Structure formats: structure tokens, C-alpha cells
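It is worth pausing here to work through a concrete case rather than discussing structure prediction in the abstract. The textbook approach is simple: state the sequence, then state the predicted structure, then interpret. We follow exactly that order.
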Amino acid sequence: MSAEIVPLNGAHDVTQLNCGVPEFDEWLKKTARTSEERDLARTYVIADENDVVIACRALVASSMESSALTSNNRHGLPRFIPAILLGRLAVDLEHKGLRSAFLGHACRTAVEVSGQVGARYLFADAMNEAARSWYLKKEMKAVNDSNVCYARIKDLRAEV
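Step two, the predicted structure:
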């Protein structure tokens, strides 16, 4: 099976994803296409040979409050810092090996977008402690003790 990452389209079957987080599965089924149409998110997927979605993720233009960062990291920054939100990173339980590649694609996309609009961070609001630990293993940092994890676009740019 190819692990091609493509924009969500009408041919994709979004009804069968089972990522272990029912809220994410339901978001794909009920909200992803509407979010696309309303310019609220851009969703990318990996589908099998039958166009059944086995992984999805959304990117959204966003911001972070500088008060969430340590004083060293927020010095000289405005109250709201331009950022890109990685939302709904979900991979079917039978295809968990695709998670790292999907995160890498999101990072490369964030770097590309930041070349066109200002964005200092890529951040994700981890759904639970397991997701938070996974993001931290992928060299993201946690905002204080929260489930919000982030990477500086500058650092991502150096890696891609």
C-alpha cells in the first residue's frame, strides 16, 4: 500500500477510521469536509487502495498566547504569536507506523506555509498523556505542564 498523503476529497471513505480516540473518528466523519468548505481547516489523509481513509490530520492558522511560554521564550514577543495548529492527527490502530511520516509531512507543510505568512510555532494540543509523550519523543516541547506541545518553525526549517 502506498502512503501517499493527499488533500481530503469527496471520493474518500471517511466512515471506517478507528484511531482509538472516538472524538477524532467522529470529527473525520462529521466535520472534516465542512471545515474544508468553510475554510476552517485543511485536512490531509492517507487512504488505502479502496480510498478508505486510514489516517488524517488538519492544519489551521492560529496563534499562541505568549504568556504560555517561559519568560526567556516570550521576551520581546507580542501577546499573540502567529502559529500553525496541528489538529486531529489520527492514524488507524492497524497503521500506527504511519504516524511519524504524517507528523513529518505536517512539519514540512508548516515550514512551507511560514515562508508565505508569519508563523513562529507549530503546536498541537495532545488529546491525552500518551499523545503528549509521543510528541515529546518527536522533539516537540510542552507548554508548562499542559498537553500543548510545540516546535519552533525555525528549528523545523533547519531539519527539512
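Step three, interpretation. The chain is about 30% helix and 30% strand. The chain has a mean pLDDT of 92.
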